[in-house]
Amino acid sequence: MAYTKRIEGRGFDETRPIEAKVGVIKRADGSAMFKIGNTWAYAAVYGPRNLHPKFLQDPSRGVLRCNYNMMPFSSYNDRVRPGASRRSKEISMVTQKALLPVLNLDDFPNSVVDVFIELPLTEAGSRCAGICAASMALADAGLEMKDLVSAVSVGRVDDKILVDLDYSEEAYEDGPVADIPVAMMPNLGKITLLQMDGEVSREMIAEALEKARKVCGDIYEVQKAALKDKYPQMGNNE
Amino acid sequence: MYEELKNHVLGLLAKGTRLDGRKPLEYRQPIEVKKGYVPSADGSAYVRIGDTELIAGIKLNVDKPYPDTPDEGGIVIGAELYPLSSPEFETGPPSIQAVELARVVDRGIRESKAVDFRKMCITPNEKAWFIVLDICTMNDGGNLFDAAALAAIAALQDCTFPAYDGIRIDYKTRTREKLPVRKAPLSVTVLKAGNQYVVDPTYEEEKVYDARLSVAVEEDGTLCALQKGGDEALSDEDILAMIDIAAGKTEELRKLL
Amino acid sequence: MTNGLLAKQREVAVPGEVLCKGMDFLPGQGTYRQGDNIHAERLGLVSVEGRSIRIIPLSGKYMPKRDDIIICKVIDITLNGWRLDTNSAYSALLGLKEGSAEFIQRGADLKQIYDLGDYIMCQVIQVTSQKLVDVSMRGPGLRKIKGGRIIEVNPFKVPRIIGKQGSMISMVKQALNCNILVGQNGLIWIHGEPVAEQKAIAAIRKIEEESHVSGLTEKMKDYLQKSASR
User: Which terminus has fewer CB within 10 Å in chain C: N or C?
Assistant: First the structure.
């Protein structure tokens, strides 16, 4: 069976509406919000700062630590019990791996850069939204980064490769489905997060990566604008 | 460790002012309450007091009533002090600070009987609606107590029942039926620093006070919860004076609900 | 666009952004070359100076540097001196030998000299590759700070807040009759009448926010005049 129409007539290559803002958590060293449809991610960066306990320290460079969490009322289903679940621990880990390649923490031996991601509302694509928010927050915190990191979930629903799966598409039951979150460095073109659950062919993966690349480029423009928007007077004066 | 700051704060208070130029009994601005902030929650509210921001969200649940109240529903309130919201919060199980915050907000709501639990019974001894309310901090600029209490009652006032067919709750379908909320208790925390009383402390001021008293007040002025905190003692006169200040201030906050 | 420059002078650049194409420019601080392109390596302002293109940082935490004069807080007292919070990821040690202009006896009660919670203005004398930081109190103007209050500003704005040869901060001090000490680590000490302190802080925040606006000195002169007369 062919998948022909998405909710609200969204195009196969179209994401849900996106909103991004930088500097939203005053006490943090860097922070950002990234909303995509009904998935809202907030990220706060603290650091480089002291790292305890000592055995976690790396004498050659700073350590990046990520923590992903959904608020208890964030799901359109049952309440999510507070605290780390196996799922959130794994997402924290792949988030850290998605962000680390762009960072240069050589100047901060024995210290830590903490990234905290909280989602008040989640409806598919939460880990990617978290990564988008986190990368803006890291830039906002003034850290050395080769590139930002942009992320989106592409997926296979039936015979189509779609961009930014929503909840109903993830839960599609009338045919094969695969959810493929992808994070990449938009300027350098390299992929830092790739996961897949479902069933696909190699050709589908190739197509999915190509679509992800294009969408991540668009998302990068939004992230860039949000970062620049924090400094409206700059660049206008000579 | 904060001697210098404390001396300065006391000096300013003696001249009737504070670190940010406010008067001792003045709340920060802006104060915002946005009900229905999170669409996935059965009830929610975003509250901002100055730089302090947090969200209270409710998920309703159907469960067996407690044996000693077979025809009543109930409420459970939790608080998360997210490390996102302050350099001083850590990941891990709720700290004692989070536990105290949740329990103090809970007391204000429970003791005032703000929610009519009898109206939340579905089948006595078998099924009743239970409210699970979570307070989640977004930025700790100080005075989480008052912001949390305000958000909790606002979220309760916002809350509607999801569809329920007797077997499963369909959270995606809302009914128009509101929670049976009949009172609106609000909390004001009054601090004592030296001989001065202060409300709505910033996170800096919270490091240098001697004692605090959180007072929950109902619309008609009835007190429904008290919590003393801080390392120093309070006299009877202090307590009564602080209660009077709190009662006056809750009227200001009530206008925002 | 024969020279391949894509970014504009004083424009905000974000990490990864391509600043120029081709080999005409040299990658300076905060940028790097990848093949034909020079990319920004952090969030900041683009600065083109001759053939060199660099990024002026807009934000970030303070990193202790030799010779910096900084305001620190005493957080521990050890056998060898005092441990200090430098408002960075790294604490500093103030050793006995560097503790003061006078000789400190062995066995002296160090609490009497600088107590826990005291703020001091000191100078960084050494930072190792592992970021072990040594500071000294022996030098002109270095002292324990009493009274007043401490605020925290973006350390990258400190040069602007101080101004050329201290001109900007002197303007604030004189207009509002406050004592002000500025640490390179972003901590600033202010001491004056309560209202004057408030105004001084507001003025400093304004300089912090508009640090890259040209004509700021004139603007602040006006601002301070109005502020002082209110």
Answer: C
